[in-house]
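User: Sequence for SAGA-associated factor 29 below. Tokens please.
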Amino acid sequence: MQTENKISPYYRTKLRGLYTTAKADAEAECNILRKALDKIAEIKSLLEERRIAAKIAGLYNDSEPPRKTMRRGVLMTLLQQSAMTLPLWIGKPGDKPPPLCGAIPASGDYVAKPGDKVAARVKAVDGDEQWILAEVVSYSHATNKYEVDDIDEEGKERHTLSRRRIIPLPQWKANPETDPEALFQKEQLVLALYPQTTCFYRALIHTPPQRPQDDYSVLFEDTSYADGYSPPLNVAQRYVVACKEPKKK
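Assistant: Structure tokens for SAGA-associated factor 29:
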């Protein structure tokens, strides 16, 4: 083609065949990758079921010691790993991101499963209310209430909370390159997990993720600063949820 500087019928037919083969190969590879991702999700689900069963039975494995012996640094590492391994939503052409993908909230009738991580609004020792990172223990359809454990406690205290005090955390990361609408946008009010803690605080989105592996950059409300907000801090998609409370003036 370069020598003749034109596309003859022969080369046109050959090119069409090569493109068709390449397209079929790409689609086959895509299907294999999707099946592999589904298998990984299935394995992770089975491991989570085993972890919950062991927790109920009072047993723990080496990778997750009992909370009463878990050092804070270990807990922070586990939370970071949970954020890093959160699967990226990869839909087929034309698919819309599902609920609990990035900033998309759960459906109205959604019930979090045992072992799911949530933001839970509880009363602190001083009587004030705060949002904490918690793990679902059970849900009662009779009372419409959850039982949750504070992720940072020794398991001695269990909170019973109504649905409105529970916000399920994202189960997939949103891809900024393909599904930017599934991300919180600049200056949107959110609840974000403050770095190196297990508490959620009100914050404004400073910069949304630009790539799938990126975190949010957020500005936490902080009266110790002149403008009422902290410097930008990074928080993973896993730990950023919508805040339904009005923005403070």
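The mean pLDDT is 88.
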